[in-house]
Specification:
heterodimer; A: four-stranded antiparallel sheet; 22% strand; B: mainly alpha; MetI-like fold; 11 helices; 1% strand
Chain lengths: 291, 270
């Protein structure tokens, strides 16, 4: 058990952590690694020694972090800290930008997803993404969801129809759109469009869903719905959410990672991060002293 | 701005009025459905209408797939750099080549070298090259107007780049591509010089029976009526009527395409 702990420390990139830095209530497993909800779970995604460059500009420095399966991990930090850059590595969307370079290792269930042997399209079927601005296709609501199945070679009409309905239900959108599946998705409100994008991501049965500031352009009510949905979805999916909204991180996540200027400053259980940050910079950020 | 618009509308109106006042009285059912008679002084222009239709259709069939493929390559695939710039400059320069030069090119390459003879095929290919730059640049603009975010959405679902282009980007760009087609149909249908040596005949008895037939065509018919023959008065009358017909044809094709585009827009943009 103890070995596991040490290994987990290493995987979580926290080997330098010292319990005396924790200000919170001291328990048996006081270090933030001791939560029962992480223990015993193989990390779904592991990032080891990841450096990332745009041209010659270094955007990420030696990122070591693991993500627990079927949990929500929030990545917080000020604008330009590299948090969005980082999650775009996890489904290799960074490859769309020319002139970038990635060093290090990113493992999904132990599989090296950075290696050229790993097909980016196959990876993205397993690691879905919801973007900052809702980006439905200029197609009907039905076609938006069916699209992912079609590009994945599903041709059985009944399977497609059943999956569309199922995905819309999971994304808590079914009731609102069931009578207008043949209408353009662009006629939906912003919040509905974002839930449509979530349904679209769910339709291809991913294992991990990356949310890149999914509520940045939404009103508080729509935001609430998305957050509720995220809490629902974590039963079945590993979720990583980038957000600049700390309340949101506190509300939806089990673990929180704080990025600053391309560095991962600290990562741990969300309540610990917010109540008892170990690093001065984290504390400054969450108390609003900068950012 | 407003005065520019007013001048524009004024000129268009003036041209339409001028042509209509001189040509309208000669247009009849007979004029549209029958062949010329009595040394071009009577009868109709039906073979020329048919010929213009074939030539335009052929040109679009050739230029549309090629032009869209070029535009897709330029915007979606080609790495940014000097090659793309050279290609872009070439496309723009192609648009600036005088149409009679296209005609000579068509004569040399399609009629003579490739042995298609003076035919619908040679004329269509020549007109197609003329239409290419318009279709390429309109398609490029349409493709670039498709937001990057929906390309990302498609790729993030595990679609390949080609699937993304075929199923998301091209359908979204279709209204803009249609605009290019409208513009080029107008230009192609009205051109005289490119078909002068490659396709057009002054007078033919029947209708074309294959792509290797010579054809009559409206713009060339007008040109011929005004420069040849021995009955200038009757011929001028027929020339104006033909002009009106040509204008009407081009405008109605434009209207049809605009209508199609609007319908498409509605379907896509709620």
């Amino acid at each position: 058990m103890h070995d596991t702990l040490v290994d987990y420390d290493k995987q979580m990139g926290l080997e330098n952590f010292h319990p005396s830095l924790v200000k919170g209530p001291v328990g048996v497993n006081i270090n933030s690694l001791g939560e029962a909800d992480v223990f015993g779970l193989e990390p779904k995604i592991i990032s080891r020694g990841v450096n990332f460059y745009y041209g010659s500009k270094r955007a990420l420095n030696n990122i070591n972090i693991s993500f627990a399966p079927r949990r929500v991990t929030a990545i917080i930090g000020p604008s330009g800290c590299g948090k969005s850059t980082f999650i775009r590595l996890l489904n290799r969307m960074h490859e769309l930008v020319p002139g970038t370079r990635l060093e290090g290792e990113i493992l999904l269930d132990g599989l090296d997803i950075i290696s050229p042997a790993c097909d980016a399209a196959d990876l993205r079927k397993r690691v879905g993404m919801v973007f900052q601005k809702p980006n439905p296709f200029p197609k009907t609501i039905f076609e938006n969801i069916a699209y992912g199945l079609e590009v994945n070679g599903v041709t059985d009409r009944q399977v497609i129809e059943a999956t569309v309905v199922d995905s819309l239900k999971k994304a808590a959108l079914w009731g609102e759109v069931k009578d207008r599946l043949k209408d353009s998705a662009l006629g939906l409100s912003g919040g509905q469009q974002q839930r449509l994008c979530i349904a679209r991501a769910l339709a291809v049965s991913p294992e991990v869903i990356l949310f890149d500031e999914p509520c940045a352009s939404l009103d508080p009510i729509s935001t609430g719905k998305i957050e509720e949905l995220i809490l629902q979805l974590k039963k079945d999916y590993t979720i990583i959410i980038v957000t600049h909204n700390m309340q949101q991180a506190a509300r939806v996540s089990d673990r929180t990672a704080f990025f600053l200027m391309g560095d991962l400053i600290e990562e741990g259980r969300t309540d610990n991060i917010f109540k008892a940050p170990r690093d001065r910079r984290t504390e400054d950020y969450i108390t609003g002293r900068f950012g | 701005m407003a005065s520019c618009m007013a001048a524009n509308i004024l000129f268009l109106g003036a041209i339409l009025f001028f042509i209509a006042s001189k040509g309208l009285s000669s247009i009849s059912w007979e004029f549209i459905t029958q062949a010329p008679r009595d040394a071009m002084t009577a009868g109709g222009v039906a073979p020329a209408i048919v010929g213009t239709f074939y030539l335009t259709l052929g040109a679009i069939l050739f230029a549309l797939p090629l032009g869209v493929a070029c535009a897709v390559y330029l915007t979606e695939y080609s790495p940014k750099g000097w090659i793309v710039n050279v290609l872009r400059i070439s496309v723009n320069n192609l648009a600036g080549v005088p149409s009679v030069v296209f005609g000579l090119f068509g004569l040399t390459v399609f009629v003579k070298y490739m042995g298609f003879g003076v035919s619908i095929l040679s004329g269509s290919l020549t007109l197609g090259i003329l239409a290419l730059p318009v279709i390429i640049s309109a398609s490029q603009e349409a493709l670039m107007a498709v937001p990057q975010s929906i390309r990302e959405a498609s790729l993030a679902l595990g679609a390949t780049q080609w699937e993304t282009i075929r199923k998301v980007v091209l359908p979204a760009a279709l209204p803009g591509i249609l605009t290019g087609v409208i513009l080029s149909v107008g230009r192609v249908a009205g051109e005289t010089a490119p078909i002068l040596f490659t396709a057009a005949a002054f007078y033919l008895k029947g209708y074309p029976d294959s792509v290797f037939s010579e054809v009559m065509a409206l713009p060339y018919h007008i040109y011929a009526l005004m420069t040849e023959g021995t009955h200038p008065e009757e011929q001028t009358r027929i020339a104006y009527a033909s002009s009106l017909l040509l204008l009407g044809l081009v405008l109605s094709v434009s209207m049809l395409a605009i209508w199609l585009r609007q319908r498409q827009r509605k379907a896509y943009h709620a």
